[in-house]
Design a protein that fits this description.
The protein is α+β, with helices and mostly antiparallel strands. It contains four helices and ten strands; from the N terminus they run ααββαββββββαββ. The N terminus is likely disordered.
């Protein structure tokens, strides 16, 4: 018979107790880590929603000061495939932030590749504007994107103003859900880095935060949105 079997019983009980304790400690550590991770992500999502509500308020204040017209997506002309300016809709909204606070950043955004060196760029903070809130025009052979009057928006509570998006994207006309491509307006030099990021539409618990034209912010999954340029007055969407 083995020596282990001949060991005093109290040692066996001690060994069993230590084994059980170690197993419980391991399970507890995993559970605690999962809880802390969920708590941190909940905090990030809450901060993000607050950021978007603040930006929606700034958007309304800007329109109040500009004959009810929304800001341009970019203040200068665009070149082929992307913006060629550091001045975007976020630049226009900054004077309307409380106490001139710094630009808001989504805590869960990813900053990779060249974006690490351009992270102070106005469109590298993890948010994008609704691309339907502008009109494209050609001036001097260059494309320009001017803001539209708020009167064009028939259902403010259903129309997206701003949303979570991969860093490097300036504007979108649908949730930022495609992982293998980039739809919208963005800096061409950041395209490869945008493609390496998790889509903005799944940033928070498989969904994302959206600010609407009436000023409120909500969490939604990408499938919640009606696609197209026209709102049906029933579902949330980017259309007007």
């Amino acid at each position: 018979m083995s020596g282990f079997a001949n060991a005093p019983r109290h040692w066996l009980w001690r060994l069993l107790a230590v084994t059980v304790w170690a197993g419980m400690a391991a399970v507890s550590s995993v559970a605690t880590w999962g809880f802390l991770s969920r708590t941190e992500e909940t905090r990030h999502s809450s901060v993000c929603a607050t950021n978007l509500r603040g930006l929606a308020t700034a958007l309304a204040l800007y329109a109040d000061d500009h004959d009810d017209v929304l800001p341009s997506l970019a203040a200068a002309a665009f070149g082929a495939g992307g913006a060629q300016t550091r001045s975007t809709w976020l630049t226009a909204l900054m004077p309307y932030r409380d106490n001139h606070l710094p630009p808001p950043r989504c805590p869960s955004r990813e900053v990779v590749g060249q974006l690490r060196y351009g992270a102070s760029h106005p469109n590298c903070y993890g948010y994008a504007m609704n691309g339907y809130l502008m009109r494209q025009r050609i001036r001097g052979g260059q494309r320009e994107y001017g803001g539209i009057p708020r009167t064009c928006i028939k259902h403010p509570a259903l129309t997206v103003a701003l949303c979570d998006a991969r860093t490097g994207i300036i504007a979108l006309r649908a949730p930022d859900a495609a992982s293998d491509s980039v739809y919208g307006i963005y800096l061409r030099k950041f395209e490869a880095d945008i493609l390496t990021q998790t889509p903005g539409a799944t940033r928070h618990y498989g969904g994302a935060n959206y600010a609407f034209m009436d000023g409120h912010a909500e969490w939604h999954r990408a499938r919640d949105f009606r696609r197209g340029s026209v709102s049906d007055g029933d579902r949330v969407g980017f259309g007007l």
